[in-house]
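The record is given unchanged here:
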Amino acid sequence: MRASSSLGTTSLAGVTGTEPTSGGENDSRGLYLQTESRDTNAACGMIRTRGGMIAPAGRHAVRSLGVLVGLVLSLAGPAAIARDQGGDPEQRLEQELERASAAERLVILGRHADEAKERQEFPRLLALGERALDLARTLENPAAEARARQNVGLAHTMLGEPEKGREILDEALALAETHGSAQDRADVVNALGITEYRLGRYARAAEHFEAAQQVFRELGETESAATSLGNLGATRSRMGDSGGGLEAFEQALVLHRQAGNERGTAMALNNIGIARQHLGRYADAIEVYLEALEIEERLGNQAGIARTCGNIGIIYKNLQQHEKALQYMERALEIHRETGDRHSEATDLNNIGGIYGDREETEKAVDYYRQALEVGEEMGDRAFLSTPRSNLGDAFVTLERFGAAEEVFRRALALAKETGNR
């Protein structure tokens, strides 16, 4: 059985390792979405991080608490081995390519692409995918071309261009359907689910993840099935089905542990923690978060560390322990900026603004909400924008800037209706 990759960062939330296929193409199967935390203390009730409720509250309410913690990839096998070799990855890549045949270069480029996904280095993933795509065309290898397009499409999605990512992934699916295996098609379908999620089309995303996990189970691809189940759980949670989300996360955890995949285990633990957090079970949530953080730190997975720190920060915010909350949130923000994960960067900025709002440092809150909006607008992430706009409106109410607040709320409400976020 091939180890699968996670799409979140290659697998939406942490998937297992990605290995080259027998034909040499890379397997980028597992984008793993992580669910979002919601602030149960918000005046408007349980409000999701991306596109939450927007009715103005009497005092400044933080609507967004929760790190989508988004798609992440966790790779084992070749990617882990390459990482352990150390040295400059670009130099190592060129050395490997120099002594390889054209067919072998596809394998090498795929392995390095998996490594980039694992590290959430999406600009590098894009560059590697484009090189592999050119080579696959030269070799007239449509199956390899489909896999390369999948990496390119995923990179565009994760770099804030989900519409472009969707277009490229549609092309990858067409190639996979005519020239690829059932596993190849399921990989692309899972990636499409991630893209639909980024576009705020959650029902479509759920359909993709459900279809992908069923195929992976039929093929006996345990890790890939676990990845898609995790993504399905995140999507169900985002749609308000907390029970269905938790059920999918728990199934994913069992499969990751059976496979001995620590990275996938850590991601599933994070998702379960968020589900418990939604239920107000903070002590139980912290317990699994700390277990996940220990694993991520042992693995040196910066993306996973950032995810978990963000989630712990939300817990401390809800417990009114603001200094600890800022400590964890700022660590998450720093890592997300370093890795180029702009979606998570925007969420972190929004959440930090919420913490300052709780501390009644409203001008600082406004500054962070505006930064979050700026990043979200640059990405064109419409599903996200209504949340910082709503929070900014609440801050303006606190500052008694009612005209500005009304305009912000109107725009947030219109966007929430348009994207289906309630």
